[in-house]
C-alpha cells in the first residue's frame, strides 16, 4: 500500500512538473535612450509573463554583457549602464526564470545616443598691477568639452574697447594702447564647437597702479590679507570643509596662516575652530585674536599659555560699535543681526592697512529683511568690501549692496570652492568685483 502511495505521489509531481510552463519574454524592440540617462525602468508585466506564477515570483537577470546591470525593485526592472558616460549599442541576453527553474531567454539591444554638450568656459579674471603685462593664456586650460577636440573649437571676442585681444592657435594675447595704460574692461569671450553649441563668459581685464597687497581666499568666509608687512586674516581658521592638508597648515601656522591678527565674525564652526585657533597661536607667538567672547574663552581654555594679552573678546549687541587695537592695527568692530534666528549679533570689521581701507560684512545666512539700517558701516567709504553672497543674491535682489560704499567688491560664500560664489553682473555700473575661482588662490589687489 505504501509503495503504491509513493508511486502515486511521484506520478503527481511528475505531471505537475510537466504542466509547468516556462516564462515568456515579450518583444520590447530596441531600448534607446539619450546620453545623460544612466538607466531605464521597465514594468515587469511589460517585460515577461508566466501562466503559472506572478511576475514578482520570477527572477530577472542578464548575460553576455559587461556594460549593463540589472536589478529589480517591487514590480519594476531597472536596466542601466555601468559607465554612465558610455554611448553606443550593446547587445545582451535577458534571462527570466520561474521558481521551478524553468527559464526563457531573449536577445535584446540597449542603445545610448550621444548628445552634443556645449563647451564650458572657466577663465579667471585678469587683474595685474602696473607696470606688468597681461600674461598670454593657453585657453586649453580653461575650457572643457567632452565631445570635441580643443583644436575643433571656434573662438570669438566681443566688447573690447581700448584693449586689443587676439586668439591664435588657442592662445589669448592682450595688447594695451600704451605702456602706462590703466583701467578695467569687461570683455566677452565666446567659444563654439563644430555643432554650433556655444558658451560665453564675461572676463574682467584690469590693470591698476602697482600694489604690494595680496589676498588669499581660504574657503567658507575666510581670507588672509598681506600688506604693509602685516598679515591679517578673518574667519580663516575653521574645521568644516577644510581639507587635511589645509588643516595641517593652519595648525602649524605655516603660510598663508602665519598671521599677525585673526578676526572672527561669529562662533559658527563654518567660520572658526577654537582648537585650530589655539594650535595656530601656540605655534605662532606673534599672532593676536579678536573674536566673540565665547570663542576667546574656548581658545584660552584649550591653551591658557596664549594669555589674555594676545586676545580681545567682543561682546557687542546689534548696533553697538567698538574701536580697539591689536598687533598694532586699529580695528573698528560693530555688531549686527544677520538673521533673526540667531540669539546674538555677528561682527563686522573695518580697518586700514597700508594705503587701503577694508570692510568685512560676511554675515552667515543673512535674512531677506536685512536692510540698509542694519549695515553698521552704511555710507562709509572703503576701498575693498567683502560682502556675503546671501546679502547680495539671497533672492535675486541686492538687499543692501547699495548701502556699501566701496570701490571693489569681493563676494563671500560658504562653499569651500568659489565656483558657486561668482560675481553678480547686476551690481550696478559703479561696482567692480574681484572673484576667486579656487581655494587658497592668491591675487594682487588694485591700488586705485
Please state the average pLDDT score: 84
Q: Which sequence of strands runs across the widest sheet?
A: 24-23-22-21-20-19-32
Q: Fraction of residues in helices?
A: 10-25%
Rg is: 32 Å
Count of separate DSSP helical elements: 6
**Coarse morphology:** flat
CATH class of the largest domain: Alpha Beta
Distance between the termini: 112 Å
Descriptive report:
By secondary structure, this protein is mainly beta. It folds into 3 domains: 21-113, Sandwich (Immunoglobulin-like); 120-207, Immunoglobulin-like, CATH 2.60.40; 214-444, Ribonuclease Z/Hydroxyacylglutathione hydrolase-like (Metallo-beta-lactamase, Chain A). The chain is built from 6 helices and 32 strands. It has helices at 2-19, 44-47, 244-252, 274-283, 293-302, 389-393, and strands at residues 24-25, 31-34, 39-43, 48-49, 59-63, 68-73, 76-81, 88-97, 103-113, 120-121, 126-129, 137-138, 143-144, 154-158, 164-168, 171-175, 183-192, 198-208, 214-219, 222-227, 230-234, 261-263, 288-292, 311-314, 321-326, 329-336, 346-353, 356-361, 381-388, 405-412, 432-433, 442-444. The radius of gyration is 32 Å and the shape is flat. Mean pLDDT is 84; it is low at 365-373, 393-400, 415-420 and 425-430.
